Backbone:
């Protein structure tokens, strides 16, 4: 299916475990983003990527690791999950040339850390 | 990064126009103004964007002040389905700074 997908949609894990959230887009967009949204709050940028093998920190990168070996995939890893990382995680993408138009968001992954 | 300021919440009656304000007093000349909205339990979706001139599309209109220090998203006839959180963000496309930070947004309540 065309678009931006996230997996899993729901995940429950325990403190200290490693968790990887997947994001896949079919448009070959250059830019990809990871945001987290805590209950009742706005989105906060964790990491973003301008192209394959180019990533940069956002507002709240601590405790997270990203990689981007292929343009279409942008996985987010929580190396040692903590309860404060319980949140809804959104992946997004857009194409930057000739000008940025619309940023597309995935459906979100609801992560609970016990 | 230039910041935006929006009211926490607004209320509207169904089928009436809604004007959602956004202040961005530190906007730079290459910052585009983008609006997104987030319906309950969904990811954000694009609404509209502009640089200097007012913009219209099928969803809404964007009115940009002459000095660009503020803008207003206009929903011409609010429906119950327009109840959402509306985010005003700036994106500096002149320098390639696509960091894209979202603020707290305005929660719009629509009354039947």
Residues:
């Amino acid at each position: 299916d065309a678009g931006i997908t996230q997996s899993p949609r729901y995940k429950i894990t325990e403190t200290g475990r490693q968790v990887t959230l997947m994001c896949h887009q079919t448009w070959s967009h250059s830019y990809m983003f990871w945001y987290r949204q805590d209950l009742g709050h706005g989105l906060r940028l964790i990491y973003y990527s301008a192209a394959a093998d180019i990533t940069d920190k956002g507002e709240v990168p601590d405790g997270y690791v990203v990689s981007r070996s292929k343009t279409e995939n942008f996985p987010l890893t929580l190396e040692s999950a903590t309860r404060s990382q319980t949140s809804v995680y959104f992946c997004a993408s857009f194409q930057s040339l000739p000008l940025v138009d619309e940023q597309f968001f995935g459906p979100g992954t609801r992560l609970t850390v016990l | 990064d230039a910041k935006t300021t929006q009211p926490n919440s607004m209320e509207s009656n169904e089928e009436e126009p809604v004007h959602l304000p956004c202040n961005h007093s530190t906007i730079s000349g290459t910052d585009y103004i983008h609006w997104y909205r987030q319906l309950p339990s969904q990811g954000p979706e694009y609404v509209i964007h502009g640089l200097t001139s007012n913009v219209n599309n099928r969803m809404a209109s964007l009115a940009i002040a002459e000095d660009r220090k503020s803008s207003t998203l206009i929903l011409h006839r609010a429906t119950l389905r327009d109840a959402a959180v509306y985010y005003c963000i700036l994106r500096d496309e002149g320098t390639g700074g696509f960091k894209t930070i979202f603020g707290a947004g305005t929660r719009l309540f629509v009354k039947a």
About this structure: The interface with chain B takes residues 31, 33, 35, 41-45, 48, 50, 56, 58-59, 90, 92, 94, 96, 99-108 of chain A (CB under 8 Å). The two ends of chain A are 33 Å apart (CA to CA).
